[in-house]
Amino acid sequence: MSKATGFVKEFRDFAVKGNAVDLAVGVIIGAAFGKIVDSLVKDIVMPLVNFILGGSVDFSNKFLVLSMPAGYNGPMTYADLTKAGANVFAWGNFVTIIINFVLLAFVIFWMVKAIYKARAKAEEAPAAPAATPEDVALLREIRDLLKKP
């Protein structure tokens, strides 16, 4: 067998192993789940924070201008300033990403905890012994009676 054929066989064995496939599925599901958490933060959590704080607090648009391009007189929004080349410290976007991370970690923690609990419950409850068929029980009873003197 040539080295190339051996390499292809090794790669195929690796690629179809359960761990590699499980990892690929996990990455794909994780990416999709990340989008769900982003939407949760942007569309649910942040509006609630705004409501509680009594105003329109859009953390993603909070920033501190560190240096302004010479002669800039345009709008003072984050998008316009960065497009113009201003040096901007985007602390609000960082706060939003931190909230995303904390929520994602919290949800994953509860999912893993539920999985471990289900596994523990499955391991605790051993399979109940199968009931002895009636004919076998009857034969055992006859055998035991024949053994008596």
Automatic annotation (TrEMBL):
Membrane topology: Multi-pass membrane protein
Top-level lineage group: Bacteria
Keywords: Cell inner membrane, Cell membrane, Ion channel, Ion transport, Membrane, Transmembrane, Transmembrane helix, Transport
A Gene Ontology cellular-component term: plasma membrane
GO molecular function: mechanosensitive monoatomic ion channel activity
InterPro entries: MS_channel, MSC/AndL, MscL_channel
Keyword 4Fe-4S assigned: no
Location in the cell: Cell inner membrane; Membrane
Parts of the chain that traverse the membrane: 20-41, 48-68, 88-112
Any Pfam family matching the protein: MscL
Biological role: Channel that opens in response to stretch forces in the membrane lipid bilayer. May participate in the regulation of osmotic pressure changes within the cell.
Family that this chain belongs to: Belongs to the MscL family.
PANTHER family hit by this protein: LARGE-CONDUCTANCE MECHANOSENSITIVE CHANNEL, MECHANOSENSITIVE CHANNEL MSCL
Quaternary state and interactors: Homopentamer.
UniProt name for this protein: Large-conductance mechanosensitive channel
Species this protein is from: Achromobacter xylosoxidans (strain A8)
